[in-house]
Design goal:
It catalyses: 8-oxo-dGTP + H2O = 8-oxo-dGMP + diphosphate + H(+). Keywords: DNA damage, DNA repair, DNA replication, Hydrolase, Magnesium, Metal-binding, Mutator protein. It is an enzyme of class 3 (hydrolase). Its cofactor is Mg(2+). The chain has one domain: Nucleoside Triphosphate Pyrophosphohydrolase, CATH 3.90.79. The longest helix has 13 residues. It is 16% helix and 28% strand. By secondary structure, the protein is α+β, with helices and mostly antiparallel strands. Bound molecules: 8-OXO-2'-deoxyguanosine-5'-triphosphate. 8-OXO-2'-deoxyguanosine-5'-triphosphate binds next to strand 1 and strand 4.
Length: 152
């Protein structure tokens, strides 16, 4: 992993960490080329900031809620997942302490049942991460549907 590439952190926010049955999925509002594609809420870790603290800050900024962090869902590169633009992302299971709210960062929030996760137009590198999340929660998600979202 390029040590200079800025780490991204994201949350797999479920309805209950003890008995997870739904995942919060968020459609990006920008940039234009990623608009309408689904991601896990989160963002870039700032210099001097710990990854968990960065995640709590990002979720407060993006969804206006606190979160309780559960286990990390480790990826294949020192625990991180390869994502867009050569970046890497660490992912934690989480539960929101208040109702997540839509802000300018996202165009849609979907609380998704496991069986519907493969119907969302995910960012291109996100599907293996969603599969690992499902695996960690004991969900079955099937194959990814090839959805194409057309927006004006
Ligand atoms: N948050 C998030 N970013 C992802 C995911 N998958 C993925 O490839 N990315 C990419 C998109 C972006 O290139 C980068 C995260 O950038 P961001 O724009 O969300 O970061 P940020 O909130 O700190 O935003 P900014 O201050 O830099 O504008 O990681 C994902 O599931 N969640």
């Amino acid at each position: 992993m390029d040590p200079d590439s800025q780490l991204v952190v994201a949350a797999a926010i479920v309805d209950s960490l003890e008995q997870p049955t739904r995942l919060l999925c968020a459609a990006r509002a920008y940039p234009e080329e990623l608009k309408g594609m689904f991601e896990l809420p989160g963002g870039k870790v700032k210099t001097q900031e710990g990854p968990e603290d960065a995640l709590i800050r990002e979720i407060r900024e993006e969804l206006n809620t606190g979160i309780m962090l559960g286990a990390e869902i480790p990826g294949p590169t020192n625990g991180a997942w390869p994502i867009l633009h050569g970046r890497h992302m660490r992912v934690w299971a989480a539960q929101a302490s208040e109702n997540p709210q839509l802000t300018a960062v996202h165009s849609r929030l979907v609380v998704c049942a496991p069986k519907d996760l493969n119907t969302l137009p995910w960012l291109p590198t996100n599907w293996p991460i969603v599969e690992a999340i499902a695996d960690a929660f004991g969900w079955s998600v099937g194959e990814k549907c090839e959805t194409v979202e057309v927006t004006k």
